[in-house]
Specification:
This protein is of the alpha/beta class. It folds into two domains: 149 residues, Rossmann fold (3-Layer(aba) Sandwich); 66 residues, Putative phosphatase, domain 2 (DNA polymerase, domain 1). It is built from eleven helices and six strands. It has a six-stranded parallel β-sheet, with helices on both faces. α1 packs across α2 and α6 runs parallel beside α11. It starts with a strand and ends with a helix.
Length: 222
Amino acid sequence: MSDKLVIFDCDGVLVDSEFIANRIFSEALSGYGYPLSIEDCIKRFTGINEHICRQMIIDESGIDIPADYWELEQSNLVKAYEAELTALLQPVMELLDILKIPRCIASNGSRNHVVKCLELTNQREYFTDKSIFTAQQVAQPKPAPDLFLFAAREMGVKPENCLVIEDSSAGARAATAAGMKAFMFLGGRHARFDWYRDLIAIHNKPMLSTPYELAQAIQQAI
């Protein structure tokens, strides 16, 4: 077994989904009487579990959004994904195949969501059932370190030998708390706002804008 592990976030890293999801999210919130632009959704909620998002909105506005609000939007989200979703990191996957470095996913999204995203972008072959981990499996989602630590333990690799690929502040904080090295991949549409890059820069981690830059950085790091 390799003593190294690359841990990928899913949304915004493996798939260019955040802009699409935040568009659907903003439309749903407007329907509940909480209008929010796509950009503001990205600014406030990227990388945050939908249940925490809901509680934040309730605490702020008093609007009682249904507990299953995101499940109710899944048909709209899937339709949008089927029409628009693209993969981001094919060169990185090819590199890991060559180097024979194990990989896994650690996502705040649900398992069904992650698998659907992989299937729609022809990336399912890169991940086994036992290498997909989600917030449903731990007590606390990112920014807590629980999910990354769980993934490392299940994959049989020490936290200090793990490299996390993330796109969000929540993910960066989780990786730091887990004692793992992290690269921030900012190749998705949601990460091209100047303010977004400024927020990520605060974490003082390498920021890569293209899959080729990320592949080169990974090769040098491992």
